């Protein structure tokens, strides 16, 4: 067995230094067996002003009952609160013969039981909350007695769980964060990973964890603008990590992988457009048909005549009007942060179906504008006479949106996708008003301009996009 990324001081020869944990207690605490309920809470989950707390309940009026406020740099999420509650319950009972912990978090229980050995072998590569998970593993290894985890159903009338929930909410509302001891995690992290268990992607994540990489100025600048646009739309200031995470989110199949890669490059200002050509080919810096001094991504997606964006956004807005909701103002920053944009009703309730529809329409429309611009620049040799016609663009847009509708219905197949399958009711809420009255799997014919329908002929609706973008 060979381990890599080890710390020789903490784990000489890849073997855990047990002296690191200190001497174990020789006697058990009074009572021997400890019964405890734990819970986590987070208000404003994922935002910069989120309030996270954890609660530990031993019994009515027990002086050991604990409320903890969790603060940065730890992630402010509900799962963080759940893990911290279990961590502190173990730390408070180091000499107990047995600690019986009841939690309503399936995530926390599976983390410490079913997944812990695999994650430890892989050096916690790709694991969320690695600092907390490693500290928990260290505390469990150092514990003198047995630790038992039990799943209880949350908000089901279980008195202990409800009491822990009250304590967790009280912790989240404390004015200042509490100090949390994560030192045991250093010894676990020092073990590194078994080289024969790692994939190439996991090994790369471990390399990047040990490598200090500064933030690029252009990336920071674009991220600030994107966060401001998202906050203006949602009244929530999301941290940069939440914006990046939204592009990796594949749940419910809302954002396509191709758009996510496109937006990721956009946040890094890494597309070969605009200032990229300043010192390479100044002629490519400008957009001659539009007489724009810089053909940057914002110009391509919201201003350029050659990308077809005007027609594309008009089609998207016309389709969105069928929902009866206001169409947002389109900007580059909103497009890049679309993964965190939500649609709410008059009472402030998030409409999950309409949120999915808006994200699908904006992401697919923006990516189509980018593809048409690249095809005109490269495939059509920047010839203004060969620019995409309105009829071509309309057929392309309808074809793409129709395809997303078909994919949504395909994702409802429980035989193929199991628990990850979409619910048919959610798909209906997403596309309500845009499909035919007698066929939920087909778009209405009046969504696009009259006479331009998918399958009516012509190369525009039959052509398969070239190369890796097909």
UniProtKB/TrEMBL annotation:
Residues 30-173 form the RNase H type-1 domain. This is ribonuclease H. Belongs to the RNase H family. GO terms for molecular function: metal ion binding; nucleic acid binding; RNA-DNA hybrid ribonuclease activity. InterPro entries: RNase_H (IPR050092), RNaseH-like_sf (IPR012337), RNaseH_domain (IPR002156), RNaseH_sf (IPR036397). Coiled coil: none annotated. Keywords: Endonuclease, Hydrolase, Metal-binding, Nuclease. Its EC number is 3.1.26.4. One of its GO terms (biological process) is DNA replication, removal of RNA primer. It catalyses: Endonucleolytic cleavage to 5'-phosphomonoester. It comes from the Eukaryota.
């Amino acid at each position: 067995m060979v381990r890599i990324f080890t710390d020789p001081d903490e784990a000489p020869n890849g073997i855990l230094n047990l002296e690191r944990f200190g001497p174990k207690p020789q006697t058990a605490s009074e009572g021997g067996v400890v019964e405890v309920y734990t819970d986590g809470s987070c208000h404003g989950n994922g935002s910069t002003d989120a309030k996270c707390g954890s609660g530990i309940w031993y019994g009515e009026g027990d002086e050991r009952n604990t409320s903890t406020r969790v603060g940065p740099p730890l992630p402010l999420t509900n799962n963080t609160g759940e893990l911290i509650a279990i961590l502190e319950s173990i730390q408070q009972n180091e000499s107990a013969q047995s600690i019986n912990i009841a939690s309503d978090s399936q995530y926390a229980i599976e983390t410490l039981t079913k997944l812990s050995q695999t994650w430890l072998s892989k050096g916690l590569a790709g694991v969320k909350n690695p600092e907390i998970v490693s500290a928990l593993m260290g505390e469990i290894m150092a514990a003198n007695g047995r630790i038992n985890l039990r799943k209880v159903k949350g908000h089901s009338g279980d008195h202990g769980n409800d009491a822990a929930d009250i304590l967790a909410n009280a912790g989240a509302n404390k004015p200042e964060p509490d100090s949390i001891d994560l030192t045991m995690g250093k010894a676990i992290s020092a073990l590194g990973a078994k080289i024969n268990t790692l994939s190439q992607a996991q090994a790369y994540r471990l390399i990047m964890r040990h490598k200090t990489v500064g933030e690029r100025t252009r990336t920071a600048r674009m991220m600030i603008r994107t966060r401001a646009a998202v906050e203006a739309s949602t009244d929530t200031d999301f941290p940069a990590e939440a914006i990046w995470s939204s592009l990796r989110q594949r749940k419910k199949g809302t954002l396509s992988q191709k758009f996510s890669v496109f937006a990721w490059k956009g946040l890094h200002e890494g597309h070969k457009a605009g200032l990229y050509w300043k010192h390479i080919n100044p002629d490519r810096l400008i957009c001659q048909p539009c007489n724009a001094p810089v053909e940057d991504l914002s110009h391509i997606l919201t201003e350029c005549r050659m990308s077809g964006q005007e027609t594309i956004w008009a089609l998207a807005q016309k389709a969105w009007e069928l929902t009866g909701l206001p169409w947002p103002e389109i900007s580059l920053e909103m497009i890049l942060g679309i993964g965190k944009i939500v649609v709410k009703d008059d009472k402030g309730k998030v409409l999950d179906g309409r949120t999915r529809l808006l994200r699908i329409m904006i992401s697919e429309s923006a990516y189509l504008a980018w593809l048409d611009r690249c095809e005109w620049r490269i495939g059509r040799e920047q010839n203004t006479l060969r620019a995409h016609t309105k009829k071509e663009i309309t057929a392309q847009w309808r074809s793409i949106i129709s395809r997303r509708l078909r994919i949504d219905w395909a994702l409802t197949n429980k035989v193929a996708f199991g628990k990850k399958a979409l619910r048919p009711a959610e798909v209906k809420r997403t596309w309500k008003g845009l499909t035919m009255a007698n066929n939920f799997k087909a778009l209405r014919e009046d969504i696009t301009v009259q006479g331009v329908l998918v399958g009516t002929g012509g190369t525009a609706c039959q052509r398969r996009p070239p190369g890796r973008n097909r």
